[in-house]
Amino acid sequence: MKIFNETKNQKPQFYFLLVLLAVTLVLSFYVLRPFVSVFILAVVFTVIFQPMYRRILKYCFNREGLAALLTTIVVAVIILTPLTFLGVRILQELRQLYVSLVEGGGKDNFINVFNGLLENFRHYFLLPPEFSINLGQYVKEGLNWLLNNLGALFSNFASILVTSFVFLVSLYYLLKDGRKLKQAVINYSPLADSDDEMILNKLELAVSSVVKGSFTIALMQGFLTTIGFMVFGVPNAILWGTAASIASLIPSVGTSLVFIPAIILMYVNGQIFSAAGLLLWGALAVGMIDNFFGPKLIGRGMKLHPLLILFSVFGGLVFFGPIGFILGPIILSLLFALFHIYFYITDNGGGIGPK
């Protein structure tokens, strides 16, 4: 059967084709929607591990399938497996902390300690009762939000397996056929090829800078914070180490937002040696990471201000869910990359045009 072979039937057939296309697009969207976030995460990891893939490709005699498989196995063993167990552990500590807050905890509970300090501060400066702060209530509300958002992600083991499988398969094919996919995007884009290349290169640079730079530094500081808290006896060390990773994104404050309360808690409870050791560990082992590794990891890539990264992390978590801690900064980086390209094109008399 030939379509559009007669002029009088051309419009009805064309409209019918548009309806079929629209219905198919809607159905395809609902079919693929559960895996969109996983696919985007696979794209990010593909950009990050592209240098490793190329290096492995040389040793595999340019056998792309084998190189992609080996790279995927490395990612699964070195990164995904620890992250999965770490996520489950964080969820357990969140629940333990939430239960301890609901039950009131003991006199050494850090919430009770700080509520006592705040109450003494209010009495010392003769402040009215309206200035009292129930820190425990705010912490419980925050923990409840985290449990509601992270619980579904890590409590269902079958869901973790399916998500990990989809991620690894996507990563494999993106590594193996990434160049073909990139060329297809360039071919189907209405922009000039040079503009498409510039946009994709800027986006790749933004992903590498944000993830390899800010996030890697945050993970290193969180890991060292966790080690220090374990050594000096701070409870829920993994949970607070994760909090330190997020706090490290805050300009001029960083991990001190987590270290200072922990040091005060140790000191108030009479653990002077632990408080002093924690202070020294935070100043030397954790505080020097940003200054020493920051310029090397970020390099000459696209740099986002730490405040913008912080806003994009929390905004991404609210909008996208758990995956938003990566998607938020990536989208913001893409915005600045597009602005850079726009001003570059306008300053050079316009470069956007047909293929």
Brief description of this entry?
The chain has 355 residues and is mainly α. The chain is built from 13 helices and no strands.
Commentary on this structure:
The chain has helices at 10-32, 36-48, 50-59, 64-102, 110-124, 135-154, 157-188, 193-231, 237-247, 256-268, 272-298, 306-320, 324-347. The model has no long low-confidence stretch (mean pLDDT 75). It has a domain at 191-355. The chain is elongated and about 85 Å long. The chain is an all-alpha fold. Helices cover 79% and strands 0% of the residues. The chain contains 13 helices and no strands.
> How many distinct helices?
13
Instruction: Give the percentage of residues in beta strands.
Output: under 5%
Distance between the termini: 33 Å
Q: Percent helix among the residues?
A: over 70%
Order of helices and strands: HHHHHHHHHHHHH
How do the strands and helices of this protein lay out in sequence?
Blueprint: H1 10-32, H2 36-48, H3 50-59, H4 64-102, H5 110-124, H6 135-154, H7 157-188, H8 193-231, H9 237-247, H10 256-268, H11 272-298, H12 306-320, H13 324-347
Helix pairs in contact: 2-7, 3-4, 4-6, 4-7, 7-8, 8-9, 8-11, 8-13, 9-10, 10-11, 12-13
